[in-house]
Amino acid sequence: MLGKKWYHGTVRKYVIAFGSLFNDIYIDRIDSAGTAVKTIKVPINYGPKERYLARAIQNPDLLRPISLVFPMMAFEITDFKYDSDRKLNTAGRNTTGSSSTGSLSVMRNPVPYNLGFRLSIICRNSDDALRIVEQILPFFTPSLSLSIDAVPEMNAGPTDIPLTLDNVNMDESYEGSFEDKEHVIWTLDFTLKAWLYGPINTSKVIKESTINFYMPDGSTITTASIGTSPVQEHIYVRPGLTANGQPTSNAAASVPVNQISASDNYGFIVDFVSDVND
After folding, report:
1. How far apart are CA 132 and CA 42, in angstroms?
2. pLDDT in tens for each of the 278 residues of the chain?
3. Which of 73, 182, 170 is nearest to 124 (CA)?
4. Do β-strands 93-98 and 182-196 pair in parallel, antiparallel, or remain unpaired?
């Protein structure tokens, strides 16, 4: 689109980060004496809960070998909406540079979008569902921050992305006759305040600049006179950075230019050389 192709995989990273929050939940099965007789890891899959309920209804006794067990969790993206309240300056830029290649990577400010996620907890009985829910709800007050490095190429490091718990619903449903097994379903709705990033543009970095002042013989400066007239003054401009990362305008205190990156907080060293006759 617009003459440039790119893909940062940010939405995929958000989906993985969300699912990873809930992929390590265990529950105990308790006997009548209150002793844990079995520990179960609760599996989590991507997709709507109706998909997994339909499979359970079509094969309620699991007589055929299928990869579906209860309790289980399922999640999906339910909403994708632009968030104008978090809009940044469109002209703003983020940059990073490489001292080895002398290149500068530039990317415009990201665009804010709210991603809606729904987590469904499907169980055969209420006790299993409560054991799962109690391991999730205390962490949301109502928000939890996810640390995600959305565009590692920009060397910006991980960004904290708020994940907010918006709503919790519980439903106990019976399929068929009253004697049939029940399904206890808890539905948790979340909003992830995500950012979507545009393309990265790369260009060469100008680290040193030289300005020559000419004094022609006549009163009019022309292209021809610049080529034949003596140079009266040079102005050399280059970045300055101390060994401990502080900007400086002192050439003696600065590290070599090839050790300064475009993203460093450098100062400017300006040298004037007068009365030069080239």
Report:
1. 8
2. 566 788 999 999 999 999 999 999 999 988 888 788 889 899 998 876 666 555 555 555 545 443 346 788 999 999 999 999 999 888 887 877 665 556 778 888 999 999 999 999 998 888 899 999 999 999 999 999 999 998 888 877 788 999 999 999 998 765 555 555 567 899 999 999 999 998 888 877 666 677 776 665 555 555 555 555 566 677 778 888 898 889 898 888 888 887 877 667 888 888 877 755 54
3. 182
4. unpaired
Peptide bond into 239 cis (omega under 30): no
Q: Are strands 231-240 and 209-214 parallel, antiparallel or unpaired?
A: antiparallel
Give the SS3 label for residue 253: helix
DSSP 246: -
Residue count of the chain? 278
How far is it, in rounded angstroms, from Cα 80 to Cα 192?
Answer: 10
| CA distance linking residue 71 with residue 89, whole number of Å | 46
Superfamily of domain 10-84+110-197, CATH level 4: Myoviridae tail sheath stabiliser (3.30.2000.40)
- Of the candidates 58, 78, 76, 77, the one whose C-alpha atom is nearest the C-alpha of residue 68 is 58
Please name which of 193, 146, 140, 126 lies closest in space to residue 168, comparing C-alpha atoms.
Answer: 140
Going from N- to C-terminal start, the domains of the chain cover 10-84+110-197, 206-274
Q: How many Å apart are CA 212 and CA 175, to the nearest integer? A: 87
Q: What is the CA radius of gyration of the chain?
A: 31
Q: Is the dihedral of CA 9, 14, 20, 22 positive or negative?
A: negative
Assigned token pair, 31:
């006997």
Could you tell me the CA-to-CA distances from 239 to 93, 156, 243, 246, 249 in Å, in that order?
A: 20, 22, 13, 11, 8
Strand pairing partners for 160? 147
